[in-house]
Amino acid sequence: MSDELELPPATLAEVPFVIDTIPALRAAIGRLGEGTGPFGVDAERASGFRYSNRAYLIQIHRRGGGTHLVDPIAFDDLTELAELLRTDEWILHAATQDLACLAEVGLVPTSLFDTELGSRLAGLPRVGLGTVVAELLGLHLAKEHSAADWSTRPLPQSWIVYAALDVEFLPDLRDALFARLVENGKAEIARQEFDNLLSWRPAPPRADPWRRLSQIQTLTTPRQLAVARELWTERDAIARELDMGAGRVVPDGSLIAASKLLPTSKGQLAGMSTFTGRLSRKQLDRWWAAIERGTSTEDLPPMRVRGATLSTPRNWKERHPEAYARFVASRAEIVAIAAELVIPVENVLTPDILRKLCWEPPTDASVAAIETVLTEAGARAWQVDATSERIAESFAHAAAHPDHYLAESPAGGDEAA
Asked: pLDDT tens digit string along 215-273?
């Protein structure tokens, strides 16, 4: 960090303003249309402050077209901007953080370059935007407002500068990264990964989202879980109604404390020093009604539910030793390939794909059969080429020498896999 602070600071060619009128938006579109090359794109949300993950600011930069900050809340229709942005590549850093909220307002890329993913593929040890800009461009990029409430209006001038800097240097960063990828023979790998991001979609909602309450594992009875479920559901409804971050309504710890105590009266709930939050007292009637539902329902949730995903491979050793042996053997190969390519293990092959393949391999476990399974599971062509033969060999060796692998732990640990 100290080395980054010694670098010259990144500065703006021109400090933009927040665009919230149609004439200003059309002027920005005109300037961007006069520019050349890809668009640097970013979005700022108000996570933790607001209920939704919608974009509250969209930043766009293009060489020769300037940097522009668009307030998407001010517009019902961004079609003209979307049409312009479809004419060239987008440059984003950690694209999956922003693609969903941009799509929500109609902004969808036709091609993209992810500088965070590109940094991983290039073998950079740290891939945060500020660190990568320091490494490749020799500039210090301050990141002090990343967790700000971007629904604030008007935006402070320091936030405006921060937001603009997040996209001002993306074209230069893209060029530097692309040169590094070409030098390392990874340009085609990166192209396939970026193309794959175009079809990325967020994971579907969890079946029981209330089970993600912090410290829920400290609840010891189904009745306590039922109360926690009802309190979480009521908090979610209040947060949605007020467009407020759920943790700002009442924090997780307060819901867990009330679920543990199982108060027998509204007064006892109100007297809890641990039941705090902005709306802990103002919405007391609703909290008490939720507790009454939880304490009277016959629909008691199970203490634990079996997930839709496979358990971690460390749990396979006793009951599923063949699968465990396959995993230990193939995991070692994936770790070795990652070291050879200087690419993080999780980028060589998605961990869930490897787990499922080890759990239920094709009948003959040939290279061709494994190639088919990997492709159908969503592995990119470069991943299939890099891993299929060595996975097939490791499966064969595990079948011939299972005791060797049952005595070992997975390379790199099975949690990451």
From this structure: 999 999 999 999 999 999 999 999 999 999 999 999 999 999 999 999 999 999 999 99
Fold held by 209-296: DNA polymerase; domain 1 (1.10.150)
Q: Which parts of 55-213 are beta strand (E)?
A: 57-63, 66-70, 90-92, 112-114
Q: Could you tell me which of 241, 242, 238, 240 has the C-alpha nearest to residue 255?
A: 238
Residue at 316: amino acid letter: W
Rounded distance, CA 76 to CA 125, Å? 42
Q: Which CATH architecture has domain 313-406?
A: Orthogonal Bundle (1.10)
Query: Which residues, 6+ apart, have CB-to-CB distance to 64 below 8 Å?
Result: 34, 35, 36, 37
d(C-alpha 321, C-alpha 40), whole Å: 49
Domain residue spans of the chain: 2-197, 209-296, 313-406
DSSP string, 49-88: TBSS---SEEEEEEETTEEEEE-GGG-S--HHHHHHHTTS
